[in-house]
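Example 5.3 — DNA-directed RNA polymerase III subunit RPC8
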Amino acid sequence: MFILADLKDTVRTTPNNFKQKLNDVITDELNRKLGNKVYVNVGLCIMLYDITKIEESHVFPGDGASHTNVSFRFVVFRPFMEEILIGKTRFCSADGIHVTLGFFDDIIIPPHKLPYPSRFDQRDQVWVWEYKTEEGSTHDLYVDLEELIRFRVVNEIFTEETPKPPDTVEKEETNKVAPYILHGSIDEAGLGPLLWWENA
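Solution (predicted structure tokens):
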């Protein structure tokens, strides 16, 4: 679920921070700059793990700050494909079941990855698995909100944001796409709400 990513960046240190240790300034700046941000094709950056290389600092004409090229390792959230995770149901919609891990909310289990046959209950806004018993009758199993759910990671989507003209920013806000989305699956035995399998 978590990996160490090797990254490089240039850290700008302002004159008021020159009296501090360079390592401390770089650590604070990298955590501020990357912490809780999505790095495209890398994952969700959590926190700095360590600094592997600090090159010479340079001061450019017209800028009193120093600029330092740094190599470092960052703790990143990026589950591998087919990994099984346990999250909590945020809400359900016709698009599927939306799941959170607490620190990451952009997880969806689409309808075609639910147990068959399943239906969306418009009144209660929940998904229901129409489970066939051994006797041949149907028993409805609900995916309730705030319920712990076990799922398999089957896909990831990175969306790189590009700068937009000022007059289109407000329009884009309503259709904003998450920079990192995970797709899950619960269409096999043992997956789905934990309550489904308590007495199995």
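Remark. Residues 2-77 form a domain with the Dna Ligase; domain 1 fold (CATH 3.30.1490.120).
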